[in-house]
Amino acid sequence: VLLVESGGGLVQTGGSLRLSCAASTHTYTFSNYNMGWFRQAPGKEREFVAAISGGGARTYYSGSVKGRFTSSRDNAKNTVYLQMNSLKLEDTAVYYCKATTRKTYWGQGTQVTVSS
Fold first, then answer.
1. CA angle in degrees (0–180, nearest 5) for 56-39-4
2. 93-100 and 34-40: which strand pairing?
3. Could you tell me which of 42, 37, 76 has the C-alpha nearest to residue 59?
4. pLDDT in tens, 9-43
5. Per-residue pLDDT at 9
6. With the CA atoms of 95, 101, 102 and 107 taken in that order, what torsion angle do they form, in degrees rounded to the nearest 10?
7. CA separation (Å) from 2 to 14, 44, 51, 107?
8. From start to end of 16-108, where are the E strands?
């Protein structure tokens, strides 16, 4: 599975960004994959941000982003999204998407920088 994130960039506090993660799958259809978003800030470990089930019915969020971030997916486009609103300085990180079925796959990441 090849995962390609996009949509990162520089935004001011309080602003919004929408990240996309496009998947190229071969063995299984995209809806078979549970998808997750993680982030890693400089000097910190990678941490969980959000997850969405294969069909999109179930979503999960870390406490630090709940109510501000929304994960969704379009299985017809093999793409998962992370809508990020009310961004804070502490949201600055490289954001990665992860696909999980029998194996786990990671994208290369996209940088999100929130400035004051």
1. 65
2. antiparallel
3. 37
4. 999 999 999 999 999 988 789 999 999 999 999 99
5. 97
6. -20
7. 32, 25, 18, 7
8. 17-24, 34-40, 47-52, 59-61, 69-74, 79-84, 93-100, 104-106
* 40 contacts 91 by C-beta, under 8 angstroms: no
**Burial, 18: exposed, middle or buried (Cβ in 10 Å; 0-12, 13-18, 19+)?**
middle
5 pLDDT more than 90 = yes
Burial of 36 per CB tally in 10 Å (0-12, 13-18, 19+): buried
Quick one: DSSP state of residue 31?
Answer: G
Chain position carrying tokens 């999980």: 100
Q: Considering only CA atoms, which of 32, 67, 64 is closest in space to residue 48?
A: 64
